[in-house]
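BUG-264 | component: ligand-complex export | severity: low

The export step for adenosine-5'-triphosphate jobs runs without errors, but we want the raw record kept on the ticket for reference. Input record follows.
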Amino acid sequence: MTDPAPTAPAPAEPAGADATASDPVLAVRGLSAGYDGIAVVHDVDLTVGAGEVVALLGANGAGKTTTLLTISGLVPKLGGTIEVAGEAAHERRRVRVADVWQLARRGVAHVPEDRGLFFDLTAAENLRLGRPARGGTAVPLDQILAWFPALEKVLDRRAGLLSGGEQQMLALARAVIGTPRLLLVDEMSLGLAPIIVEQLLPVLRSIATETGAGIILVEQHVGLVLTVADRAYLLSRGRVAFDGTAAELRGRPELLESGYLGEA
Ligand code: ATP
């Protein structure tokens, strides 16, 4: 991104009941994934519709990060299919970190657990690294600052000097400035006070609704994330133990409990 484009992307249709079926931005079928040929994620089916917020939940080691990394192509899949906006993703070879721009061109933005910021660059310079998707335009800086107003006063500050909350806002802002179709956010709340998480989750909800991006949130604040998510997947030992609406999962605390105790 050099200069932000003058106009905001057209708002998408709100996610309707059949958004997932009719307009999936992500369709994962029978995914197995892992390391050195050993699967830690097994036979996962997962879809995300345009404008949908989907929570990916589960105990430590359940396979949430591995699933996100495999969708991005940063970890090669061992089996199954991954389609982003109807296109088969990275079928032929492993995508290296250097290929993250390719990801952005395909319309995928990934905010990793460590946020992936360039600490020696200013916040504004980090934002300029956000790349628009193929055929897309960058979100104007004004819109970015409307979503993340705390960034305005720190644009000229080096990212390494920002607070944890400001760094997370910057990482999210850099991810969404390129109008991704699919946004993957891993443990946004790591190291953040719950009040910051409470502020940021509704912002992500608005971004999904206003831009039509589909968002997957891996989040340890389960109660909070289920208040903004449309649907949820609960992983247990690498397999989907629950797949349904966030409201349904909120009403089944025993399922969450067993999922987090590793018994689901
Ligand atoms: P957490 O909530 O603790 O981050 P998670 O649900 O994201 O957990 P993953 O990080 O995907 O789980 O890990 C799933 C399994 O894969 C675990 O058993 C983990 O030890 C293993 N694993 C993760 N990364 C690697 C790696 N680079 N090499 C080998 N095994 C790994």
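Assignee comment: Attached the raw record above. The two ends are 44 Å apart (CA to CA).
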